[in-house]
Structures are given as C-alpha cells and as structure tokens.
Amino acid sequence: MAKPIGPLFFVGTMRGINYYFREGEPLTRRAGGGFSRKNIKESPNMETVRKSNTEFAHCSKVNKAFKLALQPYLSGYKDGTFHSRLMQLFLNIKDCNSVSERGNRKVSKGIATTTGQQLVKAFVFIPERPHLFGGHCEFEWNPPVFKVSDFNIREAQFPKEADCMEISVGLLRFDFETLAYEHVSADPLAIARDFQKDAFTIPCPDVPGGEGMLFSAVRASFYQTVNGERHLVPDTAHTGVRIISVLVDRGEG
Q1: Continuous segment of H or E residues that includes residue 61
Q2: CA 240 – CA 132 distance, rounded (Å)
Q3: Alpha-carbon span 128 to 74, nearest angstrom
C-alpha cells in the first residue's frame, strides 16, 4: 500500500508503479519481476544462484562447527566480525576445490590443497594482535613439538600491567566431512618479563585420534600476578591466536 511522504512523493506501489527511496533520492520502477522463492527454486535461469546457495550453506555449517572446535583457543575473545571473517575464509577455501563442479565444491577438498592450507595459516584470528610475538615459529609433527627461534622478549609487547606471558599450544583434528573434532593441549609455558633465552620449545602430547585434518594452534596471552595468583589481562589487544601448521591425514581414504 502506498503512503504519502511529504507533499508529492509516495513510498509503495500504486497502479503498477513502485515508488521508493534509494540513498535519499525518490525513484520509481514498474512493479513486478524480481526473484521469488519459487523462481529461485525452479527457474532454469536461477541454476547458478541455487548452486551458490548450496555451497554457501555448506560453508556455513563448517564455520559453525569450526568455531566450536576453536573455543579452547579463543576463550574470552569477543568480536562481532569474527563469524563473518571466518565465513569468508571458508568460502575462499571452498573455491580452492578445482576438481568438483560448481554447486558441489566443499571445504574438505579445498583445504587439502596447498593454497587452502596457506589461507588458514595466514588467517588473522584476532586483528588487535595479528602477530603472536617476535621470533620464528614452527611446528614439527613427529614427535609433535612447537619450536620458537630468534626470540626477543622486547618484541613480545608486554602490556604494562602484565608480568608474565603464557604460551599455550593445542592440536586440533577436524573432519570437514562429518564436522567431528578432537583436540589435545600441551602444558602452557609461562615466560616472565626478564626472560633471556632466544629460543624455546613446547612438547605436545600425542596427536588427537579420529579422522580429518590436523592443526597446530598457538595462543599467546598475558597475566598479572596479584596476591600470588595470576589473572588474565582481559584486553583482546593482548591476546593472539595463530594456526601454525596444517597436516593432511594420510590415513584418510
């Protein structure tokens, strides 16, 4: 139903004409047309749209499950953009699947590619701290151990109230077909402000069982000691998370 806006212009439909505003400018167009749910579902011209919707729905399910799997590493972190940023990551990884037809491309095959794995490792989980700390980080899988070299405590960017940086390492196994996951964690390493070494290692337990891709994730967070107890410095700018390496499970079919 049309209704008057000011003395001369309507918003709505009258006698087959749509009256509407776009960016503050009054416009009109012939009523009808557009995309109905029935058109999208049945029209041959909407085949590309249907295929895109199918792939988007798949990535959305992966996104939801992967966020749950990452909770141990993102505990306490709140960011209204995280869901959409992670969703875009999986859409890009899905595009790395060059063997399936459009509409059937899945994250599982995209992340099996070198490019897909690079996208995961380059993803910035917490924009306020895109880098964990100074130094070169790597992860070896056999035996599983996190290694840091060329470390300089002055590059760790301690917040003024913190007296300790804690490095937590976890191994996540995620099956992108079933969306099942398992993870194990190493004992965290506490590094004080006066740490003098330029290298350290954190050994990990055996890799988690099951099927799927393996990820090594590292979290750096800062603590303040009060009355003998350590308390997390809550500012998200002082917490960093990265996926260091990705391993394709050769035991999968």
Answers
A1: helix 47-69
A2: 5
A3: 13
Placement of tokens 């500012």 in the chain: 235
CB-based burial label for 143 (10 Å; 0-12, 13-18, 19+): exposed
- Does residue 234 have a cis bond before it (omega within 30 degrees)? no
Task: Kindly provide the b/e burial profile for residues 51-90, where b requires at least 16 CB atoms within 10 angstroms of the residue's own CB.
Answer: eeeebeebbeebbebbeebbeebbeebeeeebeeebbebb
Would you say 166 and 203 are in contact if contact means Cβ atoms under 8 Å apart? no
C-alpha–C-alpha distance, residues 209 and 43, integer Å: 46
Cβ-contact 136, 149 below 8 angstroms: yes
Phi and psi at 208, nearest 5°, equal -65, 150
The tens digit of pLDDT for each residue in 9-20 reads: 556 666 667 666
Tell me the two tokens of residue 227: 């009355």
Amino acid making up residue 203: P
Over residues 88-141, the pLDDT tens digits come to 999 999 999 999 999 999 999 999 999 999 999 999 999 988 888 889 999 999
What is the pTM for the complete model shown?
A: 0.78
Tell me which residue of 173, 250, 251 sits closest to 217, measured CA to CA: 173
| Tokens linked to 132 | 């964990």
Lookup result for tokens 């595009």:
95
Cα 204 from Cα 153, distance rounded (Å): 23
Identify the three-state secondary structure at position 48: helix
